[in-house]
Amino acid sequence: GAVVSQHPSRVICKSGTSVKIECRSLDFQATTMFWYRQFPKKSLMLMATSNEGSKATYEQGVEKDKFLINHASLTLSTLTVTSAHPEDSSFYICSALGEINSPLHFGNGTRLTVT
Amino acid sequence: AQTVTQSQPEMSVQEAETVTLSCTYDTSESDYYLFWYKQPPSRQMILVIRQEAYKQQNATENRFSVNFQKAAKSFSLKISDSQLGDAAMYFCAYRSAGTYKYIFGTGTRLKVLA
Question: Which residues of B touch A42 (CB under 8 A)?
Fold first, then answer.
């Protein structure tokens, strides 16, 4: 089946620093990638939709300048949390979509802890 | 706007028994897809089953089957012969045919008792 690799799986950073999370589709071309945030025991909250070669579309309430998304190729999207603060600590999950009617495939997620 | 509701925050089932997880949704669209995803302790989201709204036949995948009631906007998941490995968080999700965006329910935590 389709594989999505997300890296790193866990990261701890100091307040004020930036962290980059990578999401790669390993065996298919992802026309669209999604970034979600998941709070403890909560559902997935869509942050933004990323299309290769174009600007990401952010959901209401998500700060574009804080959560920078780049979809440089059909197999790679990155999420950079800039000037991280403790309230940014969360579990971030990426997902990738190949063909329009294909199911969504998820990465393993990244646990971000900002100290 | 579409919404997905999972009214059972937590369910328990005895190993080898059957359990049904509920999901209702609200939409004015006629063409859409419904999914059940499983999130085990590893946090990896895994697709369990999907249903196209235009299909009347309920989808099945081995021990997993759905009861899709389009008029009632209900999409429940039945797990037969429950196994310890089925213990996870289960999310119901909706996607309209015209978009890529998925809307997830709040999840149901399933515990499987040995």
Answer: 106-107
